[in-house]
Amino acid sequence: MNKNFIPAQAIIREIIRENEQIATFRLELTNKRLPFTFLPGQFLMLSVPHCGEAAISISSSPDRLPLVDLSIRRAGELTTAIHGMKKGDQVGIRGPFGKAFPIEDFANRDLLFVAGGIGLAPLKSVIDHCLFQSGLEEDAVQSITLLYGSRTPSDIAFKQAIESWQKQGVDCRLTVDEKDSTWNGHVGLVTELLTDVTITGNTKALVCGPPIMIRFVIASLADLGCGDESIFTTLERHMKCGMGICGHCHLDGRLICLDGPVFNVSQLKKLDVMEFAR
Ligand SMILES: Cc1cc2nc3c(=O)[nH]c(=O)nc-3n(C[C@H](O)[C@H](O)[C@H](O)COP(=O)(O)OP(=O)(O)OC[C@H]3O[C@@H](n4cnc5c(N)ncnc54)[C@H](O)[C@@H]3O)c2cc1C
Ligand code: FES
């Protein structure tokens, strides 16, 4: 039987509470005999006792192995159950699955990340990986800009990571839909932040968040001259096997677990998934 059917045990080593709804679970694989490696954009099937499985993107960089981070928003039974777990508890993981972001094409590029809420999770893996590489290689990325939107200031997740990225030269621009007395930053949709960003032929844009946000950001990026093959996003579908067998994630002749979850806009336009007509 393929090893990807059988969950490997992993121990929760650390829990970072990102906000009220999102926490990052730092896992360590306990079975050292399993060869495990992944690329940014890939996902795991996470199992929690008596709750089944859910697809979760890996939010850490491969450079952090054997530790793997999963940033999880409380949604239903499984995600609520893991939010109730503590350091030292065990979960199961299968994978990694799915197509990754084409990080091999990101050398010497200006990378623009546009995220909303938990959508920063898979992009965080790319940012951390690029920053790690830039310390090692001459042909690392040219620049990294992050535009990150949250509903309110208390919904802003990944604050620790954002602070660390800023110290490493990432241009991080945050916005909230609704401000409170603690906030003196930008208020408005994340698309508004795009007006102050320069897009060139060297730009690669990675977009992740709620479907409505993705749709408007992609449209704005296209208006600013970003080509279809230079804009990447991820699609979410309910998944069961995660590996192209059950057909649960079928969409327009494609299996999102195998053909995605990462797609460029040129590929998305061939799927009946979002209205891209402008
Ligand atoms: C490739 C991939 C990567 C993902 N990465 C992450 C991640 O990094 N962090 C994270 O918190 N979640 C992620 N998800 C979403 C996560 O898998 C689902 O929210 C999962 O269903 C949660 O399980 P649950 O038992 O807690 O909730 P469930 O009881 O399964 O669902 C709770 C609610 O969310 C809805 N829902 C569940 N899955 C989806 C979906 N795929 N699309 C739209 N609505 C859905 C359900 O209809 C229900 O209303 C990812 C999903 C995919 C496919
Ligand atoms: S989840 Fe089974 S085929 Fe994609």
Q: Evaluate the radius of gyration.
A: 18 Å
Q: What structural category do the secondary elements indicate?
A: alpha/beta
Number of domains: 2
- Could you name the CATH class of the largest domain? Alpha Beta
What's the SSE pattern? EEEEEHEEHEHEEHEHEEEHEH
Spans where pLDDT lies below 50 across 5 or more residues: none
Distance between the termini: 48 Å
* Ligands bound to this protein structure: flavin-adenine dinucleotide, FE2/S2 (inorganic) cluster
Keywords: 2Fe-2S, Electron transport, FAD, Flavoprotein, Iron, Iron-sulfur, Metal-binding, Transport
Binding site for [2Fe-2S] cluster: 241, 246, 249, 257
Pfam families: DHODB_Fe-S_bind (PF10418), FAD_binding_6 (PF00970), NAD_binding_1 (PF00175)
Protein name: 2-polyprenylphenol hydroxylase-like oxidoreductase
Describe this structure in words.
The structure is a single chain. With 278 residues, the protein is α/β, with parallel strands linked by helices. It has 2 domains: 90 residues, Translation factors (Elongation Factor Tu (Ef-tu), domain 3, Beta Barrel); 132 residues, Nucleotide-binding domain of ferredoxin-NADP reductase (FNR) module (Rossmann fold, 3-Layer(aba) Sandwich), CATH 3.40.50.80. Helices cover 20% and strands 31% of the residues. It is built from 7 helices and 15 strands. The strands form 3 sheets. A 7-stranded mixed β-sheet has the order 10-9-8-7-11-12-15, sandwiched between helices. Strands 4-3-6-1-2-5 form a 6-stranded antiparallel β-sheet, covered by helices on one side. Strands 13-14 form a two-stranded antiparallel ribbon. β11, α5 and β12 form a beta-alpha-beta unit. The longest helix has 15 residues. The radius of gyration is 18 Å and the shape is globular. The chain starts with 7 loop residues before the first strand and ends in a 10-residue tail after the last helix. The mean pLDDT is 91. Bound molecules: flavin-adenine dinucleotide and FE2/S2 (inorganic) cluster (FES).
